[in-house]
Amino acid sequence: MGGWSIAVHGGAGVDPNLPLQRQEAAKQLLTRCLNLGISALRSSLSAIDVVEHVVRELETDPLFNSGRGAALTEKGTVEMEASIMDGPKRRCGAVSGLTTVKNPISLARLVMDKSPHSYLAFSGAEEFAKQQGVELVDNDYFITEENLGMLKLAKEANTIMFDYRIPLIGLETCGAGAAMESPIQMNGLPISVYAPETVGCVVVDSQGRCAAATSTGGLMNKMSGRIGDSPLIGSGTYACDLCAVSCTGEGEAIIRGTLARDVAAVMEYKGLQLQEAVDYVIKHRLDDGKAGMIAVSNKGEVAYGFNCVGMFRGCATEDGFMEVGIWE
Amino acid sequence: MGWALALHGGAGDIPLSLPPERREPREAALRHCLQVGVAALKAKRSPLDVVELVVRELENNPHFNAGRGSVLTTKGTVEMEACIMDDTKRCGAVSGLSTVVNAISLARLVMEKTPHIYLAFDGAEAFAKEQGVETVDSSNFITPENIERLKQAKEANRVQIDYTQPIQKEPTADGDSQIGTVGCVAVDGKGNLATATSTGGLVNKMVGRIGDTPVIGAGTYANSYCAVSATGKGESIIRATVARDVAALMEYKGLSLKEAAAYVIEECAPKGTCGLVAVSATGEVTMPFNTTGMFRAAATEDGYCEIAIWPPSA
Q: Per residue, what are the HEC states of A77-108?
């Protein structure tokens, strides 16, 4: 063991009927981002730089739910959030309520590095973004046709959609309280196909430093001002000396389960190894909630887990292992 | 095993030389809030009701950094935040409030009346209007003391956690004098637990800055083991996931409430940054802090009662 490791995700909870074409597109994006991270690691970039770099790429691509392609609020606008954490001193930065910042994860990094605080939100965060000179765009830039369509359908069904759906063909449904009796269709496909996802990246570099980053637009049709797990340190994102974790799924369940912190806590306080810790937390900390996570340890291990149907993910280690997947 | 209650009015660099005119109103407030809480527990109100009630009292008191009496942002405005949680892990949080008289009650409404946990800024204010909670013009929260604190902080060009000394004092090693936040934790005789925390944040904070209070697991946390409310330097409390760690140590390492809380305060948060109040499902109570002082009060069914500011004499 030892050596670097990297994992990326594009969200947990996937429609088992997702058309192959979309599955391929997702896998290609994950592969591309993984390779970006691997190059960076081979150039000896530190873990914190790698996770930011990779998540920026995921934010820029509209395929997943972050940056461009982010889920829409009930008002049809985008409110993005992100957080980043650097294991060695547990420095962290988080942002919420962004509407014009092209790469939320980079603003989160600036909060960590250039402000006296850990978390900035809404107009205060936007003001900080201006001061820092980060790239700003109109809110329209982030909005995709697909997501406008999905918002409309979600409103018609009068439901808030979690950042993934599975179809109601089986008895299993995710999205507590948002189950519908008849599958909603858009362009001939079940709406679940279009469910946008949160993105994240965790890395341990060759010096054993761990870092995590998570970014999202949140829930489709969410109330304006709603904050989910992604910017909350200990819930959606966590990193310390031992490990780094990024979660995705039902935000409210992830918050209640303080999922990311709990992985590290069971390693620290119960002596579990990384995969055991991920499995333990997924099994015991979610109650009725559906979620997934990726994690790395300071020993160079990589792990992931999820309790719903599928999670877009990829992982790679220095000794040549590489895997991109969606299903169990 | 009976009920237990603990509350705080902030941990920080509270000088031993605090003049009576600044100490007495706060002690009186702690005593009053303790009585309110104890009466409610004796009347069999749920711990969730009790913590909300007590924190509302603390918010209404202008001597503490929450509600009226909140410290000011760098623009001289008020941005309040709060969080409530019970042992079933239901929770609610709000940030960026500027007109809501009782932030903690809005946090409770988020928990009970929305599918979400956390609402902030304009969205939270809009929700407050929908819910018809009491709102006032933002100027009502601003006290002369806090205008003065902001002025001093700007002169010293530093961000400080509430409780300020006049600037003649030598700055501490990290330059901050630290206090802030109010909170309450309660357990009934049946192991039902709840916690509530509320604050105006840091003096001279950037507009939009969110601290530990509304971050579940950082400043506020409850599960079937215990209920915790923390206070101090928000950025340190977030990084150390203070409230969650107390419960995690009990659950994963089998520590008692006192041991778990002491460990977190001594080992996980830098000296001078943190205090907390906590109760366990079995009726224990603890109020450790690593700052000069912490405004606090506690009582248990078997007759224990304490109101204090500084550490007990060795």
A: CCCEEEEEEECCCCEEEEEEEECCECCHHHHH
Q: Could you report the average pLDDT of every consecutive run of 10 residues in chain B (314 residues)? A: 95 91 93 98 98 98 95 96 98 98 98 95 97 97 93 79 45 41 97 98 95 98 98 95 98 97 97 96 97 96 96 73
Q: Which residues of B touch A116 (CB under 8 A)?
A: 159, 206, 235
Q: Which residues of A107-129 are buried (b: 16+ CB within 10 A; e: fewer)?
A: bbbbbbeebebbbbbbebbbebb
Structure tokens at B209: 């800055």
**pLDDT tens digits for A207-255?**
999 999 999 987 788 889 999 999 999 999 999 999 999 999 989 999 9
Q: What tens digit of pLDDT does each residue of B59-95 get? A: 999 999 999 999 999 999 999 999 999 999 999 999 9
Is the minimum CB–CB distance between A125 and chain B shorter than 8 Å? yes
Spatial contact of A148 and A72, defined as CB atoms under 8 Å apart? yes
Say what the pLDDT of residue A166 is: 35
A227 in B contact zone (CB under 8 Å): yes
Question: Which of A92, A174, A241, A269 has the highest number of chain B CBs within 10 A, making it the mutation to test binding with B?
Answer: A269
Lowest mean pLDDT among A60-69, A123-132, B290-299: A60-69
Question: Nearest CA of chain A to the CA of B217: how many Å?
Answer: 7
Among B126, B215, B248, whose Cβ lies nearest the Cβ of A265? B248
The one catalytic residue in B73, B99, B181, B195 is B181
Query: CB contact, 8 Å: A255 with chain B?
Result: yes
- The ipTM value here is 0.92
Q: A104 near A237, Cβ under 8 Å?
A: no
Closest CA to B232 of B286, B151, B187, B295: B295
In order of A258, B130, B234, the CA distances from B107 in angstroms are 18, 14, 19
CB atoms within 10 A of CB B35: 14
Give me the residues paired with residue B231 across strands.
B275
pLDDT, residue A146, reads: 84
Comparing CB atoms, the residue among B89, B202, B238 nearest residue A256 is B89
Provide the token pair at A113: 């590095």
B273 an active-site residue?
Answer: no
- Contact: B118, A125; criterion CB under 8 Å: no
CB–CB contact B215 A222 (8 Å): no
Taking CA–CA distances from B238, the nearest residue in chain A reads: A233
